[in-house]
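Task: sequence design from structure.
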């Protein structure tokens, strides 16, 4: 089950080597000529003619080893495996919650062998904006439709053509790049007349012309290989695998949900179109096989070249459909089994790195796109005394901590001390800037405006993380929060996502609002980690200070200081 051959960035061009081998001269020209943008001497250069001005400079870099993932001194860059779980809560992982009713031995091992961050946050409390921010280092609320969650065909891509992405940056440093799993940042399908489809729903999916290439997906934003789905694999209207920019096995019938599991964790499964090779209970197993095949193929064909693998799971997004061999593996029901399967996937990827002899030269990152879903939290609390949001208030969509404080584990043998823990404040927007420092890439000031390198924190050289971070609830700029030190301001009333009053499941968790007329909420997380006492009226000066900081960040379009761009 080998992931398809690498696809040229310009679809009219051939891939690097007809036998799949890496051609450094071809890669160099491809990066320069066909990238939408290229950084040369820290000057953005776009277009075929202007890019040629950098050609001789880049050839020189290639000669000293940049194109094989090394700097001029022979330093080799690490492989990077980034695993992004879906709707996995802080309390779902044993090493973050000793009271968890689900064993997660592989994630616990990852924590023992690397770094466990305890104050890490997703950029948003729902998935599409978070995934955009992870790929770009920019908060999604800064772009049009940045609070949108795509369904069905969805799209268009939230990533603008001139936006530098994480895989594009690594591609320029000589990496092979692959995305396996859920994309969910938007892409464009076309109907039989060539008209773009940017709507969701069953009717939109029925209009897709599967003979036409898909635009705006991973291949157009720095990935050379893609195998996965447009949106949530087992939730949305299109149940089919995308290979590169095509669906080779188009959906042919309406999904029959009758044979699928029926339990409290089986909701959120729409009656869309399904392909005959799409098994909703084996999606994560299929994604794992594709990622394993990519790693093995790469090690065989390009052993001296680093790779970047972005592996995005279905687990543990509802519906909780664990693979057949995982059913009943825990005492925590189907959702517990699903968490167990996710942990197994991580373990299998770790084992593959070891089997291929590259574990010690691979940087492995594991995290989640937001907090746990409403119904999974409710039923797990009621039925199994398991709290996926523990110890925080709130769940997915909420701007309280449970909606965006996520597990974050990172292992890099020889560089990150094993068995360490950090309480430094960080956000998934920091990943791009951190990797940029690792691969010696000078980020232009117009990129990763909300990303700060955490490499000194990862290595244990610093204890201080970000100065502040912005949290985005469900709805873009309408629901923003800001955290600085122990102080957190929610610049809105309510949760910023879910409505607790009168909600069938959430009503019992609604806390009494001591002053419902206040326009915002201010909490001291040091003394009130549960966000129970709104200090907005008592600490007016602190509230105004944070409001001003949030306003300035929105006006300036960034939350990290401007970078000093070295002279060419």
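Answer:
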């Amino acid at each position: 089950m080998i992931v398809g051959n690498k696809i040229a960035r310009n679809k009219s061009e051939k891939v690097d080597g007809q036998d799949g081998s890496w051609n450094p001269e071809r890669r160099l020209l491809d990066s320069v000529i066909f990238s939408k943008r290229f950084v040369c001497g820290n000057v953005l250069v776009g277009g075929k003619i202007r890019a040629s001005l950098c050609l001789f400079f880049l050839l020189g870099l290639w000669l000293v080893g940049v194109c094989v993932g090394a700097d001029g001194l022979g330093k080799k860059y690490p492989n990077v495996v980034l695993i992004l779980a879906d709707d996995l809560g802080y309390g779902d992982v044993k090493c973050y919650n000793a009271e968890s009713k689900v064993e997660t031995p592989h994630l616990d091992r990852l924590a023992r062998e690397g770094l466990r961050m305890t104050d890490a946050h997703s950029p948003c409390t729902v998935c599409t904006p978070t995934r955009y921010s992870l790929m770009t280092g920019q908060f999604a609320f800064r772009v049009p439709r940045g609070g949108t969650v795509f369904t069905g065909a969805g799209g268009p891509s939230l990533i603008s053509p001139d936006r530098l992405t994480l895989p594009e940056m690594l591609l320029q440093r000589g990496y092979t790049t692959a995305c396996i799993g859920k994309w969910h940042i938007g892409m464009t399908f076309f109907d039989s007349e060539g008209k773009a489809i940017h709507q969701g729903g069953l009717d939109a999916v029925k209009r897709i012309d599967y003979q036409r290439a898909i635009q705006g997906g991973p291949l157009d934003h720095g990935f050379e290989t893609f195998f996965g789905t447009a949106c949530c694999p087992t939730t949305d209207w299109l149940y089919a695998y995308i290979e590169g920019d095509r669906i080779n096995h188009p959906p042919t019938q309406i999904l029959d949900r009758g044979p699928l599991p029926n339990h409290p964790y089986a909701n959120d499964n729409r009656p869309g179109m399904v392909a005959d090779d799409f098994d909703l209970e084996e999606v994560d197993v299929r994604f794992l096989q594709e990622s394993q095949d990519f790693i093995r193929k790469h090690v065989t064909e390009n052993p001296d070249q680093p790779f970047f693998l972005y592996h995005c799971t279905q687990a543990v997004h509802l519906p909780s459909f664990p693979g057949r061999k995982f059913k009943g593996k825990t005492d925590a029901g189907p959702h517990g089994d699903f968490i167990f399967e996710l942990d197994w996937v991580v373990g299998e990827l770790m084992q593959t790195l070891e089997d291929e002899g590259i574990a010690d030269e691979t940087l492995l990152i594991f995290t989640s796109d937001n907090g746990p879903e409403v119904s999974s939290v409710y039923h797990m609390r009621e039925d199994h005394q398991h709290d996926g949001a523990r110890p925080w208030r709130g769940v997915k969509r909420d701007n309280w901590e449970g909606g965006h404080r996520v597990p974050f584990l990172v292992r890099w043998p020889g560089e990150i001390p094993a068995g360490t823990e950090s309480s430094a404040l960080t956000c998934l927007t920091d990943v791009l800037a951190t990797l940029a420092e690792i691969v010696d890439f000078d980020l232009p000031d117009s990129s990763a405006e909300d990303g700060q390198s955490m490499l000194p924190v990862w290595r244990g050289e610093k204890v201080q993380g970000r100065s502040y971070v912005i949290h985005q609830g469900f709805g873009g700029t309408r629901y923003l929060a800001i955290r600085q030190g122990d102080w957190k301001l929610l610049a809105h009333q309510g949760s910023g996502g879910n409505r607790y009053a009168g909600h069938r499941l959430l009503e019992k968790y609604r806390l009494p609002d001591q002053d419902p007329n206040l326009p915002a909420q201010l909490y001291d997380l040091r003394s009130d980690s549960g966000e129970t006492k709104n200090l907005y009226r008592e600490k007016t000066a602190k509230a105004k200070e944070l409001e001003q900081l949030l306003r300035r960040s929105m006006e300036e379009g960034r939350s990290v200081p401007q970078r000093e761009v070295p002279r060419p």
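The CA atoms of residues 321 and 383 lie 18 Å apart.
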